[in-house]
Amino acid sequence: MPLRNSFAICLFSAAAGLASGAGGAPLPLDVMPAPAEVRLTGSTPAPGKLVVSVAGASDPRLDAAISRAEDRWQSRVSAGGYQAPYRLVIERGDAAGPIPTGSEDESYTLEVGAAGATLRAPTSLGALHGLETLLQLPRLEQSGWSLPLATISDRPRFPWRGLMIDVARHWQPMEVIERNLDAMAVVKLNVMHLHLTDDQGFRIESLTHPELAGKGSDGKYFTQAQMRALIAYAALRGIRVVPEFDVPGHATSWVVSHPELASMPGPYSIERQWGVFNPVLDPTQEATYALLGDFLSEMAALFPDRFIHVGGDENNGVQWNANPAIQAFIRDHGLKDNAGLHAYFNKRLYAILAKGGKRLVGWDEILNPLLPRDCVIDSWRGPGALATAAGLGFDGILANGFYIDLCFPASDHYLPDPLPPTAGLSAAEQAHVLGGEATMWAEWVTPENIDSRIWPRTAAVAERLWSPASVRDVPEMYRRLAIVGARLGEAGSLHDRNADLMLRHLVGANLGAPGVASLRTLVSLVEPVKHYDRGGLQVWSNQLVPLVGLADAAKPESEPARQFAAAVDRMLFAAGGIDRAQAASLEGSLGRWGAAGSEVAEHMADTYPALREAVAPAKGLALACSVGGDALRALAQGTPLGKGQLAEEMELLAPAAEPNPSATLIPLVAPVRLLLAAAAAQGERASLSDEQWRSWVVSTAPPPAR
Ligand code: ACM
């Protein structure tokens, strides 16, 4: 891996002088991830046709990217009628091999002038990134599409910028992976980590052991021919494919066909539930290594990447503890405990992988000073664990903080940093931190809605991993996230386009029927519950139960609710005083949303049985809007709510914050609580500093627990 550089962001805006994403000013471009250095020189109406040529020899990867780029530019920018061609010349050095390795120079410079553009890159991978930047430059303005003129000099902060997709728990076929590879390329992610085996499924064909996928997958797995095609598809987009085969725990699907290799007698069947389960391979049997040797050697030949991930997480120890022969093996071999046995197991895997020229990657639990230092730690526990690993000399990747399956807001995933300033690592230790990856665990996603869980929030993770560490302005991130969301859709992601499909699960073919507009409003204003709370609310659900409810149709982060909360924040906490003029427009939104909630609650569940579970959140939405309306009127009029009134309104609001069987929550509850607290305390505003006022309001209105 090349040494990671740290670059100061240096953004010059022609109009505003120095502008920076870190200081709260908008970046002068809509590009995401933000480039390392930009010098803006002006803007010009955007020509509707992009014509790209390569100075010198091209290669198939660049040809394919150019063709896609020309099509995407034209389909977007040509609307508006200015049809002149815009010429881009690409000058690049070495082509880079056909299969990316993670050690290429991915930098580029892009000069965008009125008469044409030049893209220079040492490798075709850098050229691909520069093309994506150019595609993100045109901005839609009132006068039509404009093209910022700029000199951009850009390179990644980290060489490992990944997205993990779990295809084991809910099967995700070829087309899901392909369209997510297309989206990854838009935001310069370069590692697709496929979690191919887990308790709930064994998703890759083995020719030496066809029984593994044969019995462990319900027939839902990638053939080797399909996997070769995916690897080639990814390589054309500059993306590596890193496979994961999770052992020794999370291994039920392995022992369905090989119960003799489990640590307790079988038989076993494919696990249908979610959680941490007991089945674990027996590391004391030579037969275990014979199977793993056959299988991993075969996989080492199938996957060209240098890294193979062997999982290693969450062995609960139940089977190892219960098996006297395994405990005797630990004693006889001086391994001390289960952790020692795990290290022994990993050393055996290491030897198998090393023969195939591969480096071993595993989750935090593999970390052990006994392991060779070219093993890599994928940390789901945090940057602290990564720092420990780096201190011991291991390379690492950060997944913690980037768990997009937990349905937290994009801002939660934007700020975690693989190398936080607090880590206190030496330069040599810092070089061990290769980057990070967003993880799309698949308990609660299907091919129909997985894109909406990944995008656009993963673009925020992509920016963390590509852009300079100083790019951390959350409102500015959200401004560009909305724009890049549209670009991701153009590139193939279905995160927005599948919204109607999810609505059809609720109302059948009746998308135009009365009330469905209100249902759309409800869906747009609820979110799936956070963290792993859904399992507790829908205990009857498992791998075989379709995911077609309100929580599945809802997005992880409601954009209208987020914008409402931001507007409430601006209104209440404006420097110097409450902006009362804002209250009326916010009240208008709440009025419309509340009416939609009431309509769904009162009129739709009788017609559409799938909406019975939506009654509680629909009522909750109506309540939150009604209480919020009361608070806004009190603020607009400058009439403080009395103490009793505040308690009454908070009480009225309480049911909207309660868990409900649809496993959704109402994000408006938090800003409505702020409005109530502010409405009650507004008489004190003038006597408090801005900071005292914020702290008073926020502490009176704690947000609902997440
Ligand atoms: C993990 O989340 N168990 C890697």
Would you identify the CATH architecture of the largest domain? Alpha-Beta Barrel
Query: Describe the biggest sheet?
Result: 9 strands, mixed
By DSSP, the count of extended strands is 20
Strand content range = 15-25%
Unreliably modeled segments: 1-24
Number of alpha- plus pi-helical segments = 26
What is bound: which ligands? acetamide
SSE topology sketch:
Layout: E1 10-13, E2 17-19, E3 37-45, E4 49-55, H1 60-77, E5 85-92, E6 108-112, E7 117-121, H2 124-136, E8 139-141, E9 144-154, E10 160-166, H3 174-186, E11 191-198, E12 201-202, H4 211-216, H5 224-236, E13 240-245, H6 252-257, H7 286-302, E14 307-309, H8 318-322, H9 324-332, H10 338-355, E15 359-363, E16 376-379, H11 383-392, E17 395-398, H12 410-414, H13 427-430, E18 433-440, H14 450-454, H15 457-466, H16 474-491, H17 499-507, H18 516-525, E19 527-528, H19 534-537, H20 550-553, H21 559-573, H22 582-604, H23 615-637, H24 643-653, E20 664-665, H25 669-681, H26 690-700
The structure holds acetamide.
